[in-house]
């Protein structure tokens, strides 16, 4: 059963988002438990990685160059477009907060689920998370009209719990457990990790259902904004790394489009304005449709290589 769910995870991610929309009360009930799911997800994903290699990647300039693109450059692009389209100050604030947001902690598991290597995605996720409060603070200075403050204590606690803790535990396990045994365990855990990801589209889409019940026209508007942001992030990541490597382009595209909006909301809360929670919900369906699209796109990109090798 686990292997079947993991094999078709791209479809089940979409189903989870739709189910959360149909059952908003169940979505709201799951929402408080998402941090616990997130911890298990990070721990299980990191167990299969050599922490020395991961730390080595974090020391490389290109990882931080990606993080700058992910947050600062895309903030400039998205907010410029929104301003030209005469977006409200509240919407500009919400968009700037989304673009400052680091990549979703579930990204490496999603990257693995579509057949790509998760190590680079993990390094990029950690780098964007570390850069997030700096860019978010600058964005709030530019777009928040009232006084604000960031809950950096909560942010540091989450860094320790969701990144530093699992990395240290994974390094300990990697050194103590025989590698053959660890490989067998992780092959099973990798199926569990992608299933844990199902809880995020299900648990985060609830606020969007609320605006849908109030006004269909407003809901369509928010959905189109979420779709446009997701598409912009994906295309930007893909195009920047296209000439470097096709797989790297796909990894960058997924990492760029996946946004840990829950962490941003935890750090800044009400300072993000009324539109942020709705955009957070509106992003779920387009975000979790991407793995299915990436599977298709990856197959298309590999077709010419297959033909050349057979020739």
How would you describe the overall organization of this protein?
With 311 residues, the chain is mostly helical. Helices cover 83% and strands 0% of the residues. α13 (206-214) packs across α14 (216-241). Residues 305-311 have low confidence and may be disordered. The protein has helices spanning 2-7, 9-22, 24-30, 34-46, 51-58, 61-84, 89-100, 107-113, 118-143, 152-176, 179-197, 199-204, 206-214, 216-241, 246-257, 261-268, 274-282, 284-310. It has a single domain (1-298), classed as Na+/H+ antiporter like fold (Up-down Bundle).
Q: Using DSSP, what is the number of strands? A: 0
**Quaternary structure type:** single chain
Element string (H = helix, E = strand) = HHHHHHHHHHHHHHHHHH
**How many domains make up the 3D coordinates?**
1
Average pLDDT across residues? 86
Keywords: Membrane, Transmembrane, Transmembrane helix
InterPro entries: Na+/solute_symporter_sf
Protein name: Membrane protein
Transmembrane segments: 30-49, 61-85, 91-111, 123-143, 155-177, 189-208, 220-242, 262-283
